[in-house]
Write a structure and sequence with these properties.
The protein is of the alpha+beta class. The protein is 30% helix and 16% strand. Strands 1-2 form a two-stranded antiparallel ribbon.
Length: 138
């Protein structure tokens, strides 16, 4: 799916150049972040600003075309965190460099996207020295 340069710029600006799932800053990262279809094209999702989110490569690849994932606490299938509909701070909080899921959708996203794997924790620690972590609250 081709996304125009203009639409990509709008997505990046709205996201403040950060992954809308895990909060990682694009600044300083070698890989260009993906523009993710929140509702996958395969499920009828459109290539419109309202259905696009900026996602780091890790979150984008782990999310794939999924819209639902299992909440590790309850074992139930839940809707994955939706950056356009859901408030990040309603579903997640920071505990140092770790993302903590506060709701079924938040817990499921943390697990499915592996938001606290050792490499990303090390990146967040390094980003804190550059004043890019934690992300500013909005």
């Amino acid at each position: 799916m081709t996304i125009s340069a203009s639409l990509r710029r709008q997505v990046v600006e709205r996201a403040d150049n950060r992954c809308e799932y895990c909060g990682l800053s694009q600044a300083g990262q070698e890989a260009l972040f993906h523009v993710d279809h929140i509702v996958p094209v395969a499920a009828g999702g459109q290539t419109t600003l309202d259905n696009l989110a900026l996602a780091c490569v890790s979150c984008s690849l782990r999310k794939g075309a999924r819209e639902e994932v299992v909440d590790p606490q309850t074992g139930k299938l839940v809707s994955l965190f939706h950056p356009r509909r859901d408030s990040w701070h309603s579903h997640f909080k920071w505990d140092g460099f770790r993302v903590v899921g506060l709701t079924p959708a938040g817990r499921a996203a943390v697990g499915a996207l592996q938001m606290n794997r050792p490499l990303v924790l090390a990146i967040r620690e390094e980003e804190s020295h550059r004043h890019r972590h934690p992300p500013p609250t909005s």
